[in-house]
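Take a careful look at the protein record below. Let me know whether the structure tokens fit the sequence:
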Amino acid sequence: MISRILSALLLMPAVLLLLWRGPAWVVVLLTLAITAGLIREWLRMETPPAPLFESLLPISAGWLLVATIWREGPVGLVVALLLVLLLGREVFRFGSAGGRGTGGAAFQCLGVLLAALPMGLLLDIWARPRGGDWLTYLLLVIWATDSGALFAGRRWGRTKLAPTLSPGKTWAGGIGGAIAGTLAGLGWAWMVGLPLLLPATLFLSFLMSVLGQVGDLAESMLKREAGVKDSGSLIPGHGGLWDRLDSLLFVTPFFGLCLEALRLWTF
């Protein structure tokens, strides 16, 4: 518990400082590094775990996808190329130790998409006007949801939310997290003057908070299927990158869609 709190206190200011004052090349390199880490953790949950050298192709494909989304390139063509590359590799691996045919290609392709698509969208949002404001809004909603759920669950939690997936989560924690995330989003949007009406801010913040908790449960489901407790041990008290970023990765596509709708509405 203490290591979890200390890790959060160190990481949160560093992330916000990077969003507001970080050089572009540092932000891009960090995004690519996180993408590579996510894909590597995903492949380690494969059965049997993929060796390091076999991660190079999926990681390279993920980087290509991040760059394509960031630069608004032909995303559909890149996704198709990714599938062809991974499926083609499985052709040569099939029948040998570790070769799983279409199942192996599908597992790797899913991991690359789940990691690279949200990371590319985050980089695209950061590069937009007021990108730092929007990303801070997104992060505060998610962070407040996690903190609110932890506090409310420990204080009032009785009825389990999803005992087969995450025995520690309760309905009280979920409701407390949703309230905390909604208030955090509302406070930040008002403080920096984001172009959102009050009802829209309340609805968007609440929905993002709920989706973030669904993302947390989805990651728990993936870990249970893989038979692992944590995706990694990179962050003390939090586990791996998937353990820390599951809500963010799940919410980001929805958030990016909302920003695109807002852009079309205002122009």
